[in-house]
Amino acid sequence: MSAAWKKLRQDPAGTLRRAWGKLVVDRFRYGRGGDYDASRYWSDRFARHGTSLRGAGDEGLAQADNEQEYAKAAEIFRGLVTDANIDFGHGHTLEIGCGPGYYTRLLVALGARDLVAYDITDVLFDELRAALPSVEFRQGDITTTTVEGAFDQAVMIDVLEHIVNEEKLVAGLRNIAGALGDDARFVVGPVVNDARSGRHLYYVRFWTWENLRAALPEWRIQTQVEFRDGQLLVLQRRES
Questions:
Q1: Do 219 and 156 belong together in one domain?
Q2: Can you tell me whether residue 192 is helix, strand or coil?
Q3: How far apart are CA 12 and CA 18, in angstroms?
Q4: pLDDT digits (tens, 9 = 90+) for 179-194
Q5: How does DSSP assign 20-61, residue by residue?
Q6: How many domains in the chain?
Q7: In terms of domains, do 48 and 128 share one?
Q8: 101: Cβ–Cβ under 8 A, 6 or more apart, which residues?
Q9: CATH number, domain containing residue 175
Q10: Residue numbers of the domain that contains 207
Q11: pLDDT tens digit string along 167-225?
């Protein structure tokens, strides 16, 4: 059963109401020409859902369905980082777009002890800090924020598609790359295979590897795996 059909069956009235909101009301509320007010949008969305995965995941699906989808994604992530020999217990780890902390918790479970997690809004930081006291949470929009510190690995999952402006995409990726050491790895995705990089909604735009390579010409794909509707990549700097 497709996600769209599942949402319609679970909550037909709510599905129609959300569709109207996404296509009309929220576009007017948050849209800014060819961009959107990402800080306000995500602050409002996380305030509405708290640490529920509906905030970062699919608002139209029940929490249990989102948990199932995230569990599948986590299994893929674990396999990828194992194949890439990434040890989160070694060195400094950077997470971009921690949201309700799903991957933050996973990184801690995988051994990360020196972990810095950025998010565009601090709405959930009090709860996250209480649950994950070893993690340093920082508020910042990666498209405008210079990352402080030097890191051995970075993780950015389900964030790319919510950067809808190409200049901001380049700026964000350069800000991350600037904080990574020469031998660091960068786990990022999903990245799509085809030309679906056009705007889907005011806050969703899919990017291809060509888009990323234009921003990060000195980086190459070390390994990749099918992930959601695209690929999850491990990037590494090219040998000089």
A1: yes
A2: strand
A3: 10
A4: 999 999 999 999 998 7
A5: HIIIIIHHHHHEETTEE-HHHHHHHHHHHHTTSTTTTS-TTS
A6: 2
A7: no
A8: 51, 117, 124, 128, 131, 132
A9: 3.40.50.150
A10: 76-237
A11: 999 999 999 999 999 999 999 999 998 755 566 788 999 999 999 999 999 999 999 99
